[in-house]
Amino acid sequence: MKDIKIDKDYITLGQFLKLAEVIQSGGMAKWFLAEYAVFINGEQDQRRGRKLYPWDKIEIPDFGSYIVM
After folding, report:
1. 36-39 contacts: CB < 8 A, separation 24 or more?
2. Which domains does the chain have, with CATH numbers?
3. Which tens digit of pLDDT belongs to each residue from 9-47?
4. Strands 64-68 and 57-60
5. 42-26-47 Cα angle (round to 5)
6. What is the DSSP letter of 27?
7. Is the pTM for the entire model greater than 0.85?
């Protein structure tokens, strides 16, 4: 599991994908979420505006598992 550190209260799922280097630009978030399953704390979510807070766990099959710190 990889730790992704943020310096704010929360980060959006689209911002997270870029910060975790899963995508190269924020514009790719919509496409990525339409093509791949993303699980946040065990529940699938495809909203790029979904707010992620410290200790949220993100799992993306074939890409890895992450925790927001």
Report:
1. 36/60, 36/61, 36/62, 36/63, 37/61, 38/13
2. 2-68 (3.10.290.10)
3. 999 999 999 999 999 998 999 999 999 999 999 999 999
4. antiparallel
5. 35
6. G
7. yes
